[in-house]
Fold each of these.
Amino acid sequence: MSVFFLGLFFLAISAEAIDTFTIPRGFIRDPRGIPFRVLFATALLSAFSILTGSIWFAFATSLFIVLALVIGSNLKHRMLGEPLVFSDLVVASSFLKEPKFYLHAIPPALLGLIAVLLPLLLAGFAFVSWHGALTNRLAGIVGLSISIGLLHVLLARTTLMPIPRLVGDTKQFGAIPTILVYWHRWRQEPDAAPPPALPAADSVPELVIIVQCESFADPAELNLQPSQLPGLEQARQHASLHGKLHVSGFGAYTMRTEYGVLCGRSEKDLGFRHYDPFLTASQDQGFALPHRLAHLYPQRVFVHPHDLRFYSRDRLMPELGFNRIVAEQDFAEALRIGPYISDEALGQKLKQLASESMKPTLIYAVSMENHGPWKAGRLDAADGAGAYTQHLANSDLMLADLTAMLEQDGRSALLVFFGDHRPSIPGQIEAQPERHTPYTMLRFPRDTENSVQDLTPAELHHAILAEILRAQAGNTAA
């Protein structure tokens, strides 16, 4: 038992020392974060003592995990402008599906170190588990029971971090206390009462096409060499509404923008749920566009040319009210430009769905072509930014093509096109306070109104509903 307490002492001291390197760094960490780190370290040491029967191997493994959390938080802050949060750990399984989404963020030297240490830890785990002492396992059982119980009481009674303030809280308290408290606050967030039903209508726009375009941003806003986006410029000239879309994420977090546009709940309303609103979106299905518009649009189609298991879209989108899913398997023969299905192929699929629709149809599409990582050699570009702007031009062509198709179609329609977030390209496009992307909303047949308004994704949701209801009123008056 004395060895257990000795290991715990060294682990607690080491965890405190390691956590001081968390970015952003405060001059002095708030001491109220210490009990969270100590109890977290105790729980780790105890759990691995139970599994292995070796206190010192449990110490080494626990130290590795604490170090990995801090390094991971710092890498994320460097790439995306915000530290690690509890929801990042929940979706860690995505790493196994598409490791290339994440490996590019890890420096080669660190990757090499992990490649050496991880097999050693696994081999050591197998060896010491076979030879571990029963007394160490029993000490672990006692330690885990006490640490989990005390941590539960501490979280239940804490008054720290009452509102989301991720960067400031990490700077003040450190990575581990912030992860733990934010997870607790997230579990306490109440579900919202569903919104009232939308009114019935005899006539609605026959087509509503909403395109969430991967990493679509105005290159003039990214400090890149100016690139022509004629499709976006033309759309802005003829849009009934356009402007800046103030997304919260940079370089990632597609689901935050997607949730905002689909469900219309602001990040303030979501509270601690806003870091990954898809984790609780099943409780918000009454807010979702396809659910609220089901009585007006018999056909409600979700289109995404990639693996729908990401963010659990395969389960979530039907729950939100879509009654047809067009996914990766429906693009088996489609053109790829770079690693992913092209925006040209996505645009052709949207045109096909529009031409086949015999009833009022709502289509929500999420593009994939311009997904990172971007690096030299992709599309034979000299650097990542060069590859990005080539893909960006293809996204712009898709917007122009969809606009021309709806112009010629003759049916009443609404086209909404927006970027989900800016790209993160280390050394070329870095996180900064300005994170907005462009959006446009075009009505067909066109009218003379052209308004400019900056919106959040949730506000864009309500603007879409207002435009459909406006069309209803216009059709009823006619």
Amino acid sequence: MTQTLEPTSQPIGISEAGAARAHAVISSSGKENAGVRLFIKSGGCSGYQYGMAIDDRELEGDTILMDRGVKLIVDRMSLPLVQGAEIDYVESMMGGGFTVNNPNATSGCGCGSSFRTDGSAAQDGEGAAGCGSH
């Protein structure tokens, strides 16, 4: 069973810049009713890695919510690790990209793709990869 939340009880959100970029990417994806799926996997130099995808599937146990007109999808296992996080889109001299501002991350790597939470370790591959290999 998927869980759809009202805006007042949202576990994650998306910034104005993130929403603008997400709308552009979703509309060019050709996937009807798609949203941004945020997920966590073990790996990276800090223990966990963020993953994002444009997804039109709603899987068993997903939490689905709307923020700034963007459908956000998080699976049951990833949700506790991203509770309170905000997806953002940042432009820099090296180009632009989505980033996750996660209040649960107690440390992260220099490239911002992986993180560690206080008191929880990745299930496998922790610390096995360097920043350059995400």
Amino acid sequence: MKTSLYSTSPISGKKYTLPTENDKSTIDNFIAKNKGKKVVVVQGLGFVGAVMTLICSNALTEEYAVIGIDLANENSYWKIASINEGVFPVIASDPKINQFHEKTKLKDNLLATYDNYAYSIADIVIVDINLDVAKNADFSKKLIDYDVDLTPFKKGLKAIGNNCKENVLVLVETTVPPGTCAKVAYPIIKDCLEKRGLSTDRFRLGHSYERVMPGPDYIDSIQNFYRVFSGINEESADETEKFLRTIISTKKYPLTRLGNTNATEMAKVLENSYRAMNIAFIVEWSRFAELAGVNLYEVVNAIRMRPTHSNLMLPGIGVGGYCLTKDPLLASWSKQNLFMDANPLMQSEKSVQINDQMPLFAFNYLKETFNNDLSGKKALLLGVSYRSDVADTRYTPVEPFYDYLKSQGAEIALHDPYVDVWEEKSLTVSSDLENLLKEDFDIVAFCTNHSEYIDNKTLIQSISEKSNLFIFDTIGVLNQNEINLLKQNHLVKVVGRGDV
């Protein structure tokens, strides 16, 4: 590995030289300081794994020595270095993140590393690495085909199997295609242990998918929320349950045990597919409401009074994040490739395609206002993250919306109170809304429902004092009083509101 290569933190901008030596002595010293504690290794330091290290470091009924492990490459090493410097690599609005992190630093029971030696001392390994779906789509996001590449996931499992103890508990939290633990993970670990001359009867393999919600309830979405779990066999399920009871408030949020890992894997992709289809369903009704002069928000809220329909979704610019954009495809891919059924889950696949095209619908709505000519128009996009009050831009629907605007020659400024650098676009994002609003724009578009934009009298007043703007609310941030005020000097449109 060349020492001239760096990993740069998107949070601080600090550069870290990639390591060239192993980290064994650092790990040994850490374990010596935490003598007598069981060792939990969390594989993957992304939005789930990084926070999982804090949960385990602050376990409810056990004292663990926790090691987070990730790759020593340009994209990931900064997370390792940041954690070891006492800087948590995830920004969120949840105050518990900082509280848990401060407690962890006082305990000195968290280390981050890139060295696979960590697996050799682990009692429990939690797998939190990404498993992506590669979509082949045209510029309009019409899905042509897709594939699931298990190669990185398999490499992660081999790293465990080639180094772990024979009596380790491997707990997969990664969202995977149903059948993965039984048909992929178990054979890999078993084969690795056999080649090392170790017993294959003592290791335990469990699956318990995360329901992490980045934002104000980040920690609680793990520690204080319901969990579903299973094991590759009864012994594995028992060990998984035993561990989960040490980190989750199970008295208030009882665990649910399913019959096998196929079931828990299916549960995760089914619950996300259901939500993705619910969102896709409302898309065509948004178009209908706009055509019919109807406020779809008040229609949906009226329907939600009926308990059986309380989760009917509201209009928006689109679906983002790591789960809903891919999980229906993981399920369909599994049916075809792991269970060898040629018939896909057609409705689930269709929901992804509809949701991926939602930014195009919003863009076309905007473009029609300018007679299909956006060249040279100056647009301010308020919010680039996919969800309110988080710095998560993974698969944000704002990205294709931005691309469509850019392709038409528009000049674009970006604001987000949580995002300084939009990694996927290599763009700087401003957090200084006051100064941005001093500039002249033709378009102001609300793209993320951050708390900073909701009931913000200063923001609305600043916008209202300008003249001849097109205010485009893609997610229903504006209330009726704000819309009435803005309409005095501006043209206002809201996705799903044909009455405006």
